[in-house]
Amino acid sequence: MGTKLGRAPSNEGELNKILQKLYSNVKENQKLNKANNFTGLLEIIESEANIVTAIHKIKSNKGSKTSGVDNKIIRDYLDKNYEDVIIEVQAKLHNYKPSNVKRVWIPKPGKTEKRPLGIPTIIDRIIQECVRNVIEPILEAQMFQHSYGFRPMRSADMAVSRIKYILFQTNCNWAVEGDIKGFFDNINHNVLIQSLWNRGIRDKRVLKIIKLMLKAGVMNEMATSELGTPQGGIISPLLANVYLDNFDRYMSREWENKKVRKKYSRDDGRISSMRLTTNLKQCYLIRYADDWVILTDSRENAEKT
Questions:
Q1: In which element (H, E) is residue 71 found?
Q2: pLDDT in tens, 51-96
Q3: Which SUPFAM superfamilies does the record match to this protein (predicted)?
Q4: Who wins on pLDDT, 290 or 127?
Q5: Is a pLDDT exceeding 90 seen at residue 42?
Q6: Integer Cα distance of 97 and 90 in angstroms
Q7: What share of the chain is helix, strand, coil (3-state, %, to 5)?
Q8: 40 vs 38: CA distance, rounded Å
């Protein structure tokens, strides 16, 4: 049996209680080994309280003065009649069709090479933030413990601290590091949507909106996007983490949580069927966005990964 929400919060305080409840429900389901099944999410997403929260968040972001293809910035919406803005956002959510994103190129940190960003319009950013704010508690509660990029209360410094802790507390002194080249440009939309469904986002209206966000085209380019999530979109880091969570869980299952069994042989004419079973951790994964490090206890294990 699923959890149907549907009732819109009347204020931001009530909204926060709903978001906290979503998070705690997922954690409780994990303890009971129950599947997550949340419907009625769109009513929360399109609520006045959530739209106001989204606008406040975007206003505080340094990108609020950067326009999309329509040349509007957040001030253009703040200067509008309050009720008109709410109605405009709600109307667009009910018949969502994102505008093209504006392509800009920015230098990669510490490099001369540049990477592309796709800048959505302000109205699309508001809608992305509305969606992100509601689905994030459901997804965050299920994320791999040691991924640190673009998550609430996580940082690159925490990833470094985790690495230092493992180096000092274990004998895992061999490291394998890498990055997933072109990751953001190669996310399979269908796989991502299925991952959201599997994690409990069961409101098909919301999944349809997210899929349309992913397909937003680029100004002056003919084709819409069939792969990837636009770097520059508010919701993109969350969706990328959901996609990579499968990688995290695979590595954790294969290495961190793998059982080590040892059979005892014949001893003094007696046969012992005893087995030593432990949760001996041979390998530790730390991920920050599309960069990852695996720490292990031997060169042999490092080469296996």
A1: none
A2: 999 999 999 998 899 999 999 999 999 999 999 999 999 999 999 9
A3: DNA/RNA polymerases
A4: 127
A5: yes
A6: 13
A7: 50, 15, 35
A8: 7
Beta bridge partners of 285: 294
Q: Are 124 and 155 part of one and the same domain? A: no
Residue 193, domain member (yes or no)? no
Q: Supply angle C-alpha 293, 283, 196, rounded to 5.
A: 65
Tokens 């953001």 found at = 184
Q: Are residues 152 and 301 in the same domain?
A: yes
CA–CA gap between residue 197 and residue 193 (Å, rounded):
6
If asked whether residues 179 and 297 sit together in one domain, one would say: yes
Label the pairing between strands 275-278 and 260-263.
antiparallel
Query: Does residue 196 fall inside a structural domain?
Result: no
Q: Which residue, 294, 292, 293, 288, is CA-closest to 158?
A: 288
Considering the domain architecture, whether residues 125 and 179 belong to the same structural domain is answered as no
Query: What is the pTM for the complete model shown?
Result: 0.86
Same domain, 42 and 137: yes
Question: Residue 150 is which amino acid?
Answer: F
In total, how many domains does the chain have? 2
The tokens describing 251, both together, are 């590595």
Q: Is residue 26 part of a domain?
A: yes
Rounded to 10 degrees, the C-alpha dihedral 52/153/3/29 comes to -170
**Are residue 129 and residue 57 in the same domain, yes or no?**
yes
Range of the domain at 252: 146-187+228-305
Banded model confidence at residue 226, pLDDT cuts 50, 70, 90: low
Tell how strand 38-39 and strand 3-4 pair up. parallel
Dmax over Cα atoms in the chain, in whole Å?
Answer: 90
Q: Does residue 6 sit within a domain?
A: yes
Q: What is the pLDDT of residue 6?
A: 66
- Output the domain CATH number for residue 274: 3.30.70
Indicate whether 265 pLDDT > 60: no
